[in-house]
Write a structure and sequence with these properties.
Rossmann fold; eight-stranded antiparallel β-sheet; 20 strands; binds adenosine-5'-diphosphate; 34% helix; D-amino Acid Aminotransferase, Chain A, domain 1; 16 helices; 3 domains; Dna Ligase, domain 1; alpha+beta
Length: 460
């Protein structure tokens, strides 16, 4: 007999958090608020992590290098068994988009807090993702939804049909790698050969595809949340165009200057796509936006670093909703309930030199964090915390919310002024300067803006 909703809900009462840093704190908090017990894990470098003390169990699973700890699937599964966890939350990065891991977790009889392994696999291959999106009516960047053949004449014909400039992308690419822009025909074959070799080495697959290169796009994304019972909603949009080397630095919600009637059909198409592929949990559809049109580039099948800006505007606790979906609960909101209010910004505070952007490790000797209405800080650091050189340099996320974008900017300026981190270098001076910039204040800057702004500042 099939399970009733009541029987299937509440599939676990203890969650192992397979991650570190600020997101480990964020997930632990959500679990506790839902009445769930937590298991924290760490590498040797993270033994002093504050979330270890507040978890119900804390296990060191391996040496400092991520490959031997946070990426060690067997060690994580063993820790889950030892600590009696019924579910694993992967956070972001590390194993969060690893279909084999999601599969191994489920095979071990545990719940993977995320989509099924097959959803992760479809979306992890950019060609199959594009095909699934086109089938669901999501607008995509012009170009075929098939891998490039080896035949040079066919490749040339595809490029001509799309029109130069084109971009060659690895089907298995990620993290801004495995892409090459081709401005004109005479460098096409060289670009293909180089990208194929890079893709084979970095992603273990030489599969490539080609699409139109958009010259001045903005990066706009749509947050979705789905349950296991055929319900899905989108929670508005974010603008993440402030990027350096394809890495997001500042995010905001909503994306400024986007009329509701333009974004509405895109959001609904994303929901439709989720229903068609049987998607479960939270996810993000990333788009490039140029001249009033949206073009899908990829889907992230996990919680994202920038989820707080959507939490601030929608009032939905995305991490709790994600956990409840994994427990088998029916989504407790419908699209008509979703209202996004005000404006939110997030600054990623990184332990890095504000000029060279080189990572900065060491002990935090003094820490002052801002507080007040509409200010939120997601962090795992404290005075005396040792920032290790082994992992991502993100040490805190500063998030603000206010009725209007201008007020939210003013609030962020004030929050940044009240943030003091000593003992290590951080990008705070750079963020303070960025929030004084006139063009950013106007909004609607494209994905190249930050790099150009940095170049001008260096030249001045
Ligand atoms: P990754 O998975 O490596 O992050 P994405 O497909 O999300 O790769 O692309 C990363 C970034 O590369 C985008 O945010 C954008 O800056 C740029 N990019 C990707 N596709 C295009 C395109 N068709 N035209 C212009 N820029 C692109």
């Amino acid at each position: 007999m099939p399970e009733t909703l009541e029987q299937s809900a509440g599939r676990f009462d203890t969650v192992l958090i397979a991650n570190r840093g600020e997101i480990a704190v964020r997930i632990q908090r959500a679990c506790r608020e839902l009445g769930l017990k937590t298991v924290a894990i760490c590498s040797e470098a993270d033994r002093q992590a504050p979330y270890g003390k507040t978890a119900d169990s804390f296990l060191c699973i391996g040496p400092s290098t991520a490959a031997k700890s946070y990426l060690n699937q067997d060690a994580i599964l063993l820790a889950a068994r030892l600590a009696g966890a019924g579910a694993i939350h992967p956070g972001y990065g590390f194993l969060s988009e690893n279909a084999a891991f999601a599969d191994a977790v489920e095979k071990a009889g545990l719940v993977f807090i995320g989509p099924t392994a097959s959803s992760i696999a479809i979306m992890g291959d950019k060609i199959s993702a594009k095909r699934a999106m086109m089938a669901a009516g999501v607008p995509c960047v012009p170009g075929p939804d098939t891998a490039l053949p080896d035949d040079p004449a066919t490749i040339e014909r595809i490029a001509l049909e799309i029109g130069y400039p084109v971009i060659i992308k690895a089907a298995g690419g990620g993290g801004g790698r495995g892409m090459r822009v081709v401005p004109k025909a005479d460098v096409l074959h060289e670009a293909i050969a180089l990208t194929r070799e890079e893709a084979r080495k970095a992603f273990g697959s030489r599969s490539l595809y080609m699409e139109k290169f958009l010259e001045h796009p903005r990066h706009i994304e749509i947050q979705v949340i789905c349950d296991d019972h055929g319900n899905a909603v989108w929670l508005g949009h974010r603008d993440c165009s402030m990027q350096r080397r394809h890495q997001k630095v500042v995010e905001e919600a909503p994306a400024p200057g986007i009329a509701p009637d333009i974004i509405q059909p895109v959001g609904l198409a994303c929901v439709q796509a989720c229903l068609q592929i049987g998607y479960r949990g939270v996810g993000t559809f990333e788009f490039l936006y140029e001249d009033g049109a949206f073009y899908f580039i990829e889907m992230n099948t996990r919680l994202q670093v920038e989820h707080p800006v959507t939490e601030m505007t929608s009032g939905v606790d995305i991490v709790q909703a994600q956990i409840r979906a994994a427990q088998g609960h029916v989504l407790d909101l419908i699209q008509g309930d979703v209202t996004c209010e005000g404006h939110s910004f997030e600054c990623r505070i990184n332990a890095e030199d504000p000029e060279s952007f080189l990572p900065s490790a060491g002990v935090v000797t003094h820490l002052a964090l801002p507080a007040g209405p509409g200010i939120r800080v997601d962090t795992h650091i404290h005075a005396g915390y040792k920032v290790s050189p082994y992992y991502d340099s993100l040490i805190a996320k500063l998030i603000v919310h206010a009725p209007t974008r201008a007020e939210a900017m003013a609030r962020m300026r004030e929050a940044l002024a009240g943030t003091e981190v000593e003992g290590i270098s951080t990008n705070i001076p750079f963020l303070r300067a960025l929030f004084e910039d006139g063009a950013f204040a106007q909004g609607e800057t494209d994905i190249h803006y930050l790099e150009q702004w940095l170049k001008l500042r260096r030249a001045a």
